[in-house]
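Example 5.3 — Winged helix-turn-helix domain-containing protein
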Amino acid sequence: MASRASVWRLLTGRLGWSLQRPERRAVERDESEIARWIAHEWPRIKKGP
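Solution (predicted structure tokens):
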């Protein structure tokens, strides 16, 4: 079994891969829709039936 260091060298050196980390926020995030939901839907849900 290969060590982590060996696998990392294989991925970066031979295959040209790079370290990638996900963004903290989704690209599809719609700030205006979130604001509308907080202003209209959340109070209704919080109040209850």
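Remark. The first helix runs from residue 4 to 14.
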